[in-house]
Amino acid sequence: MKLHGVADVLYGAYNRHDTAAVAELYDSNGTHEDIAMGHPKVGRAAIAHGLQKYFGWFPDAHWAPHVQIADPFGSVTITYLLTATLQTQMDRTIARGQRISLRGAHVLHVRGRLIHSSEDYWDAATFQKQLNA
Question: Half-sphere exposure of residue 62, counting CA atoms within 13 Å on the CB side?
Fold first, then answer.
């Protein structure tokens, strides 16, 4: 599937694990929130830092986007499948090579060419079940 605009660039940067490129897609006060976690990241540095931690745990993380829906007001929703292997201890979870396969959806709110805010919706129970299997 070919995505358009900022979504295409975002998933390319995610899959290269280029945290600086991801951060540059956000405006300087942009926010990203993993809804399941409930802790928004505010600003480019916080967004990059959060991704760096994630890639430390899951260095083979890969997002495969499926469906993109855009509205005329600057928001775009993309469904995806995230696959990855836990390779470093994550908080209290010991890495044993657990594979995750997690469906989710990003909602990007774009102003001009930059992301003003984004939300990432995924199932925390499924994630935990896969990590603890």
Answer: 5
Order of strands across the sheet that contains 26-34: 41-42, 26-34, 114-122, 99-111, 75-85, 62-70
7 strand-pairing partners: none
Whether 120 and 127 have beta carbons less than 8 Å apart is answered as: no
Residue 64, H or E segment: strand 62-70
Check: CB of residue 63 under 8 Å from CB of residue 9.
no
Amino acid, single-letter form, for residue 72: P
Q: Indicate the pTM of the whole model.
A: 0.92
What's the token pair of residue 72?
A: 């005329």
- Per-residue confidence in pLDDT tens, the chain, 133 aa: 344 689 999 999 999 999 999 999 999 999 999 999 998 999 999 999 999 999 999 999 999 999 999 988 889 999 999 999 999 999 999 999 999 999 999 999 999 889 999 999 999 999 999 999 8
